[in-house]
Amino acid sequence: MSTYEARLKALREQMQKDGLDGFVVPICDEHMSEYVGEYAQRLGWLTGFGGSAGSAIVLKDKAAMFIDGRYVVQVRDQVDGTLYEYVNVADQKPHEWLAANAPKGSKIGYDSWLHTREWAETASKALAKSGAELIAVSNNPIDAVWEDQPQRSPEKLAVHGDQYAGKSARDKRADVAAWLNDKGYDATVVAALDSVAWFFNVRGKDIANTPVPLAYAIVRADETATLFVAPEKLTDAVREHLGNHVEIRDYDEMAEALSDMGGKTVAVDPERSVAAIFEALDKAGATIVKDRDPTILAKAIKNETEIAGHKAAQKRDGAALTKFLHWMANEAPKGGLDELSAAARLREFRAENPELKDLSFRTISAAGDHGALPHYSVNEETNQPIEMNSLYLVDSGGQYLDGTTDVTRVVAVGEPTEEMRKRYTQVLQGHIALDQAVFTKGTTGGQLDILARQYLWADGVDYGHGTGHGVGSYLSVHEGPQRIASFGGLNEALQPGMILSNEPGYYKAGEFGIRIENLFLVEERVIEGGEQTMLGFETLTFAPLERKLIDVDMLSQNQRQWVDDYHARVRAMIAPQLVGEALQWLETQTAPL
């Protein structure tokens, strides 16, 4: 089955064998992960779609691809429009499309290990109104027809030492047990991969760019826990690290273990746990309480060790990025570079650091009009040259034992237009406004989001993504629960120790894209003469901005001072790591405006 048309035909034949009139295919794994292992890339295999968010619904005589605003262009490039209707979820949700298109009496299948219970309940109600039924399948029909489906990763787990974690796994178990006892719960299910890794102070290589193992956990009020992971993935060092209070069971025994929890009160996070977990506990007769995974907030609020480690990682990473920006300044105008070669060179600069373990995500290396696609992902088919008098956008990061980085810079190759300079400067003004924000305790990211957009809004333009996301500590580059956005996560107060991105942007379809991204740390601020302790941000990312794109006349005196102060800090931190032409270039790039 080398074509997507053949794969769609095979799925429909399997659906008929299984007595299904339709099937829902998400990008997801059993842990509700943002990025999934190769074995779980079912949507990509079926349709060719390479984005990180989306789903498909296949009926007997029609099919639809569901994407958000980030992928409106990409889906048309990658998914055959003769096979799939394109649906923006802002216009119509998948369950709404199902209700409108599923014939009366039809049976629509879904894999309960790949959807939340809330989704299943919503879809079931929508289908019931049109006389159709949602059916949980015991065997995923895509797995039945995907002949060369990859196996789960065999990679071993590794201990993440206390010198990086800053808190022992034993203490974390005690904290969660105290939370359980305080709430009156017997146990909680920890299903998110980064939560499992953080809780046990282990890391893995089962997901590209995210150092987590495929594993679940059940944590109990008596400070014991069960880790569900393929036993052959555990080294003697990891077993010794986990100790006698952690039982090891096979990854595939999770459902069986849940079925033994009858009579127990079990906390389950509805956002991070699939429907199958709820179903198994229901059948067992457990009392289910919907409550947030107790590791989520603790993981988001970095301790002193994690903060120090992150700063050390940023210092190394900033030098690698600065070397790349210097290289681009020299090489791009000569011609011959393209998106793939530039991304490869940036990885080489990062790899000069022996501490680098991986990239923190697949580098967004976007030349010209591709920069207008905020989540563009280059491949051999889409790769295009970096041309003169254009903008090149690079969003990248590294995974180090002591920290995870994420940074975006724009390079002006040749001479930028006045429009490019104007938009870059407006994005920079918003970036500065958010960076300088001072706010009361209890303030959410949703309340701050407008600061980064104000200069664009005043000119009648905007960007279609959030302004900031949380970042893990040698974990996921996208970490909740905090975020800075006008949608989602609006009720999460920012707290000292949280690390977030600051990444406003501007995208002109078919022409260019701009984004300036640094990471910053929420910290307490004491205001002289103030009546309460406030919060603000400490910048963590240090790499030069693109001087050719800054319209100094648009900046206020305060904004000019911010740029000069920021570049002085970049120079102080990065210059000792450079020599020769790269050092001279940095000094020029960071000279006062």
Count helical runs: 19
CATH topology of the largest domain: Creatine Amidinohydrolase
Main β-sheet, spatial strand arrangement: 4-3-2-1-5-6
Rg, Å, rounded: 25 Å
Helix content: 25-40%
The CATH architecture category of the largest domain equals Alpha-Beta Complex
Give a description of the structure.
There is one protein chain. About 35% of the residues lie in helices and about 20% in strands. Helix 4 (about 95-100) packs parallel to helix 5, helix 14 (about 305-330) packs across helix 15 (about 340-350) and helix 16 runs antiparallel to helix 17. It has 19 helices and 27 strands. The chain has 3 domains: about 5-145, Creatine Amidinohydrolase, Chain A, domain 1 (3-Layer(aba) Sandwich); about 160-300, Creatinase/prolidase N-terminal domain (Creatine Amidinohydrolase, Chain A, domain 1), CATH 3.40.350.10; about 330-565, Creatine Amidinohydrolase, CATH 3.90.230.10. The strands form 8 sheets. Strands 4-3-2-1-5-6 form a 6-stranded mixed sheet. Strands 12-11-10-8-13-14 form a 6-stranded mixed sheet, sandwiched between helices. The chain is of the alpha+beta class. Strand 26 (about 520-525) and strand 27 (about 535-540) form a beta hairpin.
Topology:
Elements: H1 4-17, E1 22-26, H2 42-47, E2 55-59, E3 63-67, H3 72-78, E4 85-88, H4 94-101, E5 107-110, H5 117-129, E6 133-136, H6 141-145, E7 158-159, H7 162-165, H8 169-183, E8 187-190, H9 193-200, E9 202-203, E10 216-220, E11 225-228, H10 236-242, E12 246-249, H11 254-259, E13 265-268, H12 275-284, E14 287-290, H13 295-300, H14 304-331, H15 339-351, E15 356-359, E16 364-367, E17 390-396, E18 398-400, E19 403-404, E20 407-413, H16 418-435, H17 445-457, E21 468-470, E22 479-484, E23 499-502, E24 505-508, E25 512-515, E26 518-525, E27 534-539, H18 557-574, H19 580-589
Parallel strand pairs: 1-5, 3-4, 5-6, 8-13, 11-12, 13-14
Antiparallel strand pairs: 1-2, 2-3, 7-9, 8-10, 10-11, 15-18, 16-17, 17-20, 18-19, 21-22, 23-26, 24-25, 26-27
Organism: Parasphingorhabdus flavimaris
Domain Peptidase M24: 310-524
Domain Peptidase M24 C-terminal: 534-593
